[in-house]
Design brief:
The protein is mainly alpha-helical. The chain has helices at 3-9, 14-22, 40-54, 59-67, 72-97, 102-125, 128-139, 149-164, 172-183, 187-202, 204-210, 212-223, 225-228, 231-246, 248-259, 261-280, and strands at 29-30, 36-37. β1 and β2 form a beta hairpin.
């Protein structure tokens, strides 16, 4: 099928089809006369591309989806963050329209930019579930206003770390396992996991009492060969090793504690909760 026919069938302009070819989204064969010949598969692909464009996805996003559909959840999460930021920007614009000055809202504007910069980098360094989970975990603590020199230095230390640290790499086998896991868990469920984690840390005694039997069963499971040979354990060990050797524990976490007073408070509670948990459940580890 020639370009004019395929454009008409897919409800696209000839220029749009040519652009998608230039971007490598589709690769029609070239006839002896130099004309492009679009196959049935090319036509179906163009229809998919048109629909993806219809919901506001960029060419780069579509290209990544066509290569690996598991990235859809990452794209959804990034767009969710951007939507929340747009809502925050609208509120700031409303305040300006109501008579406040840029000086009045400069901290809020800077906070939005700083929050976005860190979250985007976390999603780039850590793949799939880990990137989303970590960004959710830190997101609520990135609202603290940067007012001191120490906070400003900590922010740039975080940016420098995330810009230069090697991406957390996993094997294709483990990636497939993680992608399959991601396909069964919604963004709202991950948000609930993060929220519940914080509540449990703030009241670790109640958590241990309410989950005594489950914790005991899981402790026994972690000792089994089944768990030791499982993809979940392999991923956990790789993540621990990466965080230990990359500077995540030595650079990123201390800088986060300096940047965000609310995160520092949470982290101190986390240390106390871990100490009490290990003391009460020595066999869990």
């Amino acid at each position: 099928m020639l370009i004019n026919d395929v454009a008409k069938q897919c409800n696209l302009t000839k220029k749009a089809v040519e652009y998608y070819v230039e971007q490598g989204l589709i690769c029609p064969t070239i006839l002896e006369n130099g004309y492009r010949n679009f196959s049935k598969e090319d036509t179906e692909l163009l229809k998919q591309i048109s629909l993806y464009r219809g919901i506001g996805l960029s060419v780069l996003e579509i290209k990544s989806i066509l290569a690996d559909t598991s990235v859809l959840k990452n794209i959804l999460y990034k767009k969710t963050i951007k939507l929340e930021q747009e809502k925050s920007k609208q509120k700031i614009l409303q305040r300006l329209a109501d008579g406040e000055t840029l000086e009045d809202v400069k901290y809020e504007i800077n906070n939005l930019e700083n929050h976005s910069a860190i979250i985007e980098r976390l999603l780039k360094v850590f793949p799939s579930y880990y990137g989303i989970f970590l960004s959710m975990n830190f997101s609520k603590y990135l609202v603290d206003t940067i007012k001191t020199e120490e906070q400003e230095e900590a922010y740039y230390e975080i940016i420098d770390f995330l810009d230069n640290v090697a991406e957390f790499k996993i094997s294709e086998e483990l990636k497939k396992y993680l992608d399959d896991y991601m396909s069964n868990i919604a963004i709202k469920d991950m948000q609930k996991i993060v929220s519940d984690k914080e509540k449990n840390i703030r009241n670790v005694d109640k958590f241990m009492q309410n989950n005594k039997d489950a914790l005991k069963q899981y402790s026994e499971y972690k000792k089994s060969d089944e768990y030791k040979n499982s993809p979940a354990n392999k991923l956990s060990e790789l993540m621990k090793d990466f965080c230990s050797t990359s500077g995540y524990y030595d650079v990123f976490i201390p800088a986060m504690r300096k940047l965000s007073p609310s995160y520092n408070e949470y982290y101190e509670q986390l240390l106390k909760a871990n100490e009490k948990f290990i003391e009460t459940n020595p066999d869990y580890l």
